[in-house]
Amino acid sequence: MKDYPDFPELVIEDEQFYRDECVELSRFFTQHQKELAEIHALGRRIIKFYQVLEPFFHDFTESVCHCCAVPCCVNRHGFPDFEDLVLFLAMGQGLPDYNFNVIDTDKCQFLGPNGCSLPRQARSYRCTWYFCDHVLDEFEHINSKRFHRFDVELGRLGRCRSVLLERFSELWFISH
Ligand code: SF4
Ligand code: SF4
Q1: How far, in Å, is the centroid of ligand 2 from the Cα of 78?
Q2: How far is the CA of 85 from the centre of ligand 2 (A)?
Q3: What beta strand segments (E) does the chain contain?
Q4: Whose CA is nearest to atom 2 of ligand 2?
Q5: According to a count of CB atoms within 10 Å of the terminal CB, is the N or C end of the chain lower?
Q6: Which of 170, 158, 173, 174 has the alpha carbon at shortest distance from 42?
Q7: In this predicted model, what pLDDT tens digit does every residue of 13-50 receive, in sequence order?
Q8: Model pTM score
Q9: Per 3-state DSSP, what percentage of the chain is helix, strand, and coil (rounded to 5)?
Q10: Which tens digits make up the pLDDT trace of 48-78?
Q11: What's the CA-to-centroid distance between 108 and ligand 2, angstroms?
C-alpha cells in the first residue's frame, strides 16, 4: 500500500481557508465524476451503515445525552475535518455552512433543546464514534448483546470510511 501525504488540516478560526477548501473539493468532485464512481458507491454504503446504526443511537445514547448536565458537544467538535468534507460529498450531500463567530469552547452551534439539530450523516465523524464512558457503560449494562452488535456495526462503518478515504487520497494526491 502506497503512503500518501496527509490531507490539509482545516483551521476552525480560518473561515476563508475553510471556504477555499470546500470550493476546491466540490470542484474536484464535479470534475472527476467518472473516476469517483467507486467513492460514491462507498458513500452510499456509508449511508446504509448510518441507517443501521441510527436505532442504536436513538435508544441508547440520545436519551442519556438528552439529560446530560455538561454535554461534551462544544462548538469545535461540531466542525468537520477534511475527511468529513470528503465523506459529505461522497454521500452526495452539500457542504454545511458554519457560523465561525461561535467560540470553539462554547456550546456547539448545532446543539438545541432536543439535542443535535444535524442529521447523523451531516455531523463530523467524531460525533458518531465518541461517547463518554458513562453512556457506553450504561448501554452495555442494559443490553450487552445489542451493545456488541452496535460495536460491530460501528466497526464496519469505520472500515468502510477508511477504504473510501484511502481510495480518495489516491486520486486526490495524483491530481495535486
Ligand atoms: S456523551 Fe456523555 S458527556 Fe457527551 S453529552 Fe452524552 S452523556 Fe454527556
Ligand atoms: S453531535 Fe451535534 S451538537 Fe454535538 S458536537 Fe456534534 S454537531 Fe455539535
Answers
A1: 5
A2: 16
A3: 111-112, 115-116
A4: 116
A5: N
A6: 158
A7: 789 999 999 999 999 999 999 999 999 999 999 999 99
A8: 0.93
A9: 60, 5, 35
A10: 999 999 999 998 887 788 889 899 999 999 9
A11: 6
